[in-house]
């Protein structure tokens, strides 16, 4: 029986449940096709930033409640409704701030210390790929999944993550550019070929979500110190030279190797026993009044 987190009621367009211990399922739930308007994307970012503080969550699975869509992308009906200054300079600066806030919200899964697995089915257009790109593991249903990078079809090149992240992640940059420039539809098999997803799950919505949850359940039994470290190491290594990545990892390891997870893991291997790791715990924040 799924449990509902105490903070789940804060969100209007997301459904949050614990189908398994330490596995949080986040479902997009704005009828009919999860089109993102401003209230939705701000809530999305706030939700993941809140989840990041929950030490009882070890793995996150992101999916959609809609039967035929992961997300249709941006709600075009509201895209041009933002009122800005008639002055070109002020208008540009205001819109730049808005775009940065948009990018920050959709990037929230990449900031979370927990690994994020996204289970994709149905249509995944435009902003859907921006959201998918910020997740750590990306799986798609074989039946009926359809992707499209929409910028050139809607006359918009204000990237929220697809064009910034995927060129560093995909294995076939030529094919990715073909898909981005043409905005054509492509299915799960081609998404696998280019590297947008790492697995195609036979079936449709139910099958890909269940597969993601089952895999998350396995990961959730691992050390939370190691899970967080591996996620951070990979993210840092993508954007930095090897020597810098090694220095970053050495600094992290200086603290991590002093923890109990490493000792307990070694003992469990020797004794051939299963180990249960403690959650990371909550940080006790102390306010310090200082005179400047």
UniProtKB/TrEMBL annotation:
GO terms for biological process: fatty acid metabolic process. It comes from the Eukaryota. Keywords: Fatty acid metabolism, Isomerase, Lipid metabolism. The keyword Zinc does not apply. Coiled coil: none annotated. One of its GO terms (molecular function) is delta(3,5)-delta(2,4)-dienoyl-CoA isomerase activity. Transmembrane segments: none annotated. PANTHER family: DELTA(3,5)-DELTA(2,4)-DIENOYL-COA ISOMERASE, MITOCHONDRIAL, ENOYL-COA HYDRATASE. Belongs to the enoyl-CoA hydratase/isomerase family. This is ClpP/crotonase.
